[in-house]
Amino acid sequence: MMTLKLERLIDTGHETVGILYNRNHIEGTDEFLCFTLEDEKRTQKIYAETRIPAGTYKINLRTEGRMHLKYSGMFPKVHVGMLHLTDVPNFEFILIHTGNDEDDTAGCILVGSYPVEFEEGRFRIEKSTKAYEKIYHQIAKEISTGGNVFITIIDN
Question: Which residues have CB under 8 Å from 14's CB, separation 6+?
């Protein structure tokens, strides 16, 4: 079993910056994987403009849809399905994928190597493909070989 932890650090009112860790259950430590970017928190959900609620969700591989086809072409040697968070209340098709700013997410979790403040109080993440390649293989391998992967999302 693999457990990821996403710790949300900054909510600018436009986007949310966080850090993704791989939890080591034996040692009780967290291994840094990458930074994340999501939509902002809203009291009332607006489609494609609201981040998902904090909580624990199972990640499966989604092997259908537009994003799966796109990533099959982008990463033909390693792609076996989109990293898909399941059973998210009031949300569908929440994926972990590449992207740089809030325009690239519709409630999904974007991954990147580091955040950049591009204007006062506004952030984007850079080197998204590099971060995605770093995390994708180990997560997809765990799922593909019959293991369970969960992500726990924490608001700070």
Answer: 40, 102, 122
